[in-house]
């Protein structure tokens, strides 16, 4: 998608602080961090939101989550705990229309979220 900012991060046409990458996903630090660790994990292929995924995409979804676990180790928050967030659609608070998993940690997370 030529107008998708996260697709531009995948192709390195806009800069990002990369944290992790493999054949299916890449991860980079959020530009406006909401916690000491705030990393986004995205599929390399353009997927607008989690609502677009189907049964066949279970592997991709699993790999997003497992990449989040790897990032928790890389960032040193695996033992203290962390939160995964996937905002979906307008009421879900999604502002970038390329599926992304937020990995948040390094501080206590309140519940319920805002
Ligand atoms: P969401 O509101 O769930 O769609 O999250 C979008 C996230 O993308 C926000 O936390 C933004 O701070 C983050 N973001 C937007 N543009 C960039 C960028 N160029 N590099 C890194 N993070 C970004
Ligand atoms: Zn995209």
Structure description:
The protein is of the alpha+beta class and 114 residues long. The chain has a single domain, classed as HIT family, subunit A, CATH 3.30.428. 20% of the residues lie in helices and 22% in strands. It has a five-stranded antiparallel beta sheet, covered by helices on one side. Strand 2 and strand 3 form a beta hairpin. The chain is globular, with a radius of gyration of 14 Å. The termini are far apart.
Q: Helix amount, in percent? A: 10-25%
| Overall form | globular
Distance between the termini: 30 Å
- CATH level 4 superfamily: HIT-like
CATH topology: HIT family, subunit A
- β-strand number: 5
The number of helices is 2
Question: How many distinct domains?
Answer: 1
- Give the DSSP E fraction (strand runs of 2 or more residues): 15-25%
CATH architecture, by name, is: 2-Layer Sandwich
Poorly predicted ranges (pLDDT <50, ≥5 residues)? none
Main beta sheet: 5 strands, antiparallel
What would you call the structural class? alpha+beta
**Molecules bound to protein:** adenosine monophosphate, zinc ion
Task: Give the radius of gyration.
Answer: 14 Å
Mean pLDDT metric: 97
The CATH first-level class comes to Alpha Beta
SSE order: HEEEHEE
| Spatial order of the strands forming the largest sheet | 1-2-3-5-4
